[in-house]
Amino acid sequence: MSRRHRPYDPGAAEVARQARLEQRAEAARLKAHGAEVSLDPAGRVVSAFRRNVFGALLRAGALSQSQHDAAMRLTSDWAIWKGLDGRPEELVRVDGGEGRRELVTDRMIAAGRRVEAALGDVGRADRALLAALVVDAVEADRPAPWRQTVADVTGERREKEQREKVVNALENLRLWYEAPRRPA
């Protein structure tokens, strides 16, 4: 039995070529923004993520899983608060005072309150350090190396002490998240 071949269609070939070019362009755009991109054999983007200090310290064994979970919870709330979590919603325009109109949702307001409460109880030095690390992880297009961020915030230049400062800040954050709450 012989195989039948489909006739060559230049239009379909051009569409396929255009799709491959778009996939390569998307992968290049994600890589340019600091993401690690995984492609399937056909060249399609399978996953894209950006590493952060919390994952790096967890893999290095410097953080416990619960400290990492507290950091990710803060990071997630920060992203929701800033409207960067990628979740489509019905947005409401709110006048922020100075004539600027911002897009705000109830989820964003609630997440902002959670961020404020968490960072409000960890101490001033830990608050500044955690906020800077989370801003790098969530908001920065090209985040600075975590050691540079720690040095900028704390003035500490030695790696071991920098690591200890991050771990101590995350331990305080973990304790805040795991502490029993007063009934409302």
What does this structure look like?
- It is elongated and about 75 Å long.
- Helix 3 packs across helix 4 and helix 3 (65-82) crosses helix 7.
- Helix content is 58%, strand content 9%.
- Strands 1-2 form a two-stranded antiparallel ribbon. A two-stranded antiparallel sheet has the order 3-4.
- By secondary structure, the protein is mainly α.
- The chain has helices spanning 10-32, 53-59, 65-82, 106-120, 124-138, 146-154, 159-178, and strands spanning 36-39, 45-49, 92-95, 101-104.
SSE pattern: HEEHHEEHHHH
Kindly, what is the distance between the CA atoms of the first and last residues, rounded to a whole number of angstroms? 77 Å
Instruction: Please give the largest β-sheet.
Output: 2 strands, antiparallel
Low-pLDDT stretches are none
Q: Describe the strand arrangement of the main beta sheet, using strand numbers.
A: 1-2
* Spatial shape: elongated
User: What is the helix fraction of residues, given as a range?
Assistant: 55-70%
Mean of residue pLDDT?
A: 84
Structural class of the secondary structure composition? mainly alpha
State Rg. Answer: 22 Å
Strand tally is: 4
What is the strand content? 5-15%
How many H/I helical runs?
Answer: 7
